Amino acid sequence: MDIAAQTHSHKPQRKNRLTLYILLAMFAGMGIGYMIHTQASASFIDAFAPKIKLLGNIFIRLVQMIIAPLVFSTLVVGIAKLGDLKAVGRVGGKAMLWFITASLVSLLLGMVLVNVFQPGHYIEMNQGDKAGVADLMAKTTEFSLQKFIEHVIPKSVVEAMATNEILQLVVFSVLFGVATASMGDHAKPLIKALDVVSHVVLKMVGYVMNVAPVGVFGALCSVVALRGLGIFQFYFIYFAYFLLGIALLWLILLTVGYLILGNRLITLFKRISSPLLIAFTTTSSEAVFPKLTEELVRFGCKDKIVSFILPLGYSFNLDGSMMYMTFASLAIAQAYNVPLDLGTQLTMLLVLMLTSKGIAGVPRASLVVVLATCSMFNIPAIGVALILPIDHFCDMFRTATNVVGNALATAVVSKWEGALEHDGGTAVHHAH
Hints:
The protein has helices at 2-7, 12-39, 42-82, 85-117, 130-139, 145-152, 157-162, 166-182, 188-209, 212-227, 231-234, 236-261, 264-271, 273-282, 289-299, 303-316, 319-335, 342-355, 365-376, 384-416. By secondary structure, it is mainly α. The chain has one domain (2-416): Sodium:dicarboxylate symporter (Proton glutamate symport protein, Orthogonal Bundle), CATH 1.10.3860. Helix 2 (12-39) packs parallel to helix 14 and helix 17 packs antiparallel against helix 20. Mean pLDDT is 86; it is low at 1-10 and 425-432.
C-alpha cells in the first residue's frame, strides 16, 4: 500500500482539488439558487432557471460525446486481451449473477419499505407538477418485448453511437472484439491502434472533467431557483423514508463488498470519491462513466475487465434506480388508495426488473419507467406529478448509489477473476 501511496503522491492533490471545486460549486449553486428563489419575481425565475441549467447541459453533453468511442475502443481491446469466448462468457456470467442479485435485492427493499412505512399517505396532493408529467408522458412508450429487443440489438452501430445506446454498443463491441481475437496476429495492429484511441479518449476525459464544477453549479442553481428548499417541508416524510432505503441499500452493498474485498473497500471509495460527487450533483450516471473507468483501473482492476463490466453495469445494474422505482410506484398507488396485493406487487417487481434494463443513464430516466409501470397496473399516471417536485433530490442519491453499485460490481468480479492488483499496479497513469 505504501509503495502505491508514494507512486500517487503527485496525484491526490489534483484529484482532491477537483472534488473541492465540485463541493464549492454545489454550495454556491444552492446558495445563489435559493437567493433567486426567495428574492426574484416569478417571471425572472422562469427565464433564469433554463438558462443557468445550460451550464449543466454543456458538461453532460461533453461527457456524452466521449462515451461511445470510449466504450467501443476499451471493450474491443479488453475482449481481444481476454482472448477467447470462454473467458468472455465466464466474466460476463459472474457479472450478470451479481447484477441480477443486486437488482432483486434493491427492488425488494423498495417494496418492503413502502409497505412498512406507507410514505404515499403523506404525499401532498396539491403540490403536483402537472407540466413536468406532460413532458415525461411524451417520452414514455408502452413496454413490450419488441421494444426491449430493439433496445438491446443494434440495427446500425452508427445509430447506437449517435444515440449513446450503451447496451447496443456493448453487443456490437463484444462481437467485434471476439472476431478480432479470433484473427490472432493478423489483428494485432488494429488492437494496438484501438488501445491508443482509448488512451486518447481518457486524456480527453481529464480535460472535460475540468468543466464539471461549472456543470454542477448550473444544474443545482436551476433546480433550487425553481423549487426552493421549502420543498423539503412538504415532502419531508417521503424523502426521509427514501433516504432510509438508500442508507439500507448502501449498508447491504458495502457489507457484501467488505466481505469480498476486505480493507480494499476503503481504498476503492477514496478512488471513486470525485466521480461519486459528480454523479450526485449532476444526477447523470453517464456523466461519470469515463472518469469511473479511469479510477477503477487506477484502483487495480484490470482494464480488460473494467471495460467489459462497466458498460454492462450501466445497462443492467442500477441499484439506486431499481429501489426507487418500486418505492415511487407503490407510494403513488398508496397516495391514490389503489390496493395492490402481494402477488401484484411481486409481478410489478418482475416487470420493473425487465423494463428498467432499458433505462438510459440520464436524469429522470427512472421516472419514465415508473410512468410506464403505473399505467400497466392501473395506477393514475398523473400521480408521478406528485413526486416530481422532490424527484431531483431523490435522483441525486439514486444516481450516486448506481455508481457505487457498479464500482463494487467491477471490483468484486475482478477479485473473483483473480485480477485485482494493488493500487496503480499495472494501471496506466494518464498524465493530466
